Amino acid sequence: MVFISPDRVLPPEQAVIWEGAKREMDSAPARWTLATARKAIKPRLKALLEAHGFVSVKLPPKSQFDVEH
């Protein structure tokens, strides 16, 4: 994905998705904290990625026997 001014998106067939994201951000609260931004963006981003075949995977918790490389 590449953004080119003025307001052009490549590849062009993805423009609708990114224009929708821009509208969402433009309607966002004027002052976001990091926690507010994460809370608002995380479910939308997850839904967007899942719609295109990405999946969430929960990793098992680290064990005391794990080896760091």
How does this structure look, described?
It is a single chain. The protein has 69 residues and is mostly helical. It has one domain (2-50). Helix content is 43%, strand content 9%. The protein has helices at 15-26, 34-51; strands at residues 2-4, 8-10. Strands 1-2 form a two-stranded antiparallel ribbon. A hairpin with a 3-residue loop joins strand 1 (2-4) and strand 2. The radius of gyration is 17 Å and the shape is extended. The model has no long low-confidence stretch (mean pLDDT 76).
Question: What order do the helices and strands come in, and which of them pair?
Answer:
Blueprint: E1 2-4, E2 8-10, H1 15-26, H2 34-51
Antiparallel strand pairs: 1-2
What labels would you give this structure?
9% strand; 43% helix; 69 residues; 2 helices; mainly alpha; two-stranded antiparallel sheet
**Multimeric status of the protein:** single chain
Mean pLDDT: 76
What proportion of the residues is helical, as a percent range? 40-55%
Ends apart, CA distance between termini: 33 Å
Structural class: mainly alpha
Tally of separate helices? 2
Give the total of beta strands. 2
Count up the domains: 1
What is this entry, summarized?
The protein has 69 residues and is mainly alpha-helical. It has helices spanning 15-26, 34-51, and strands at 2-4, 8-10.
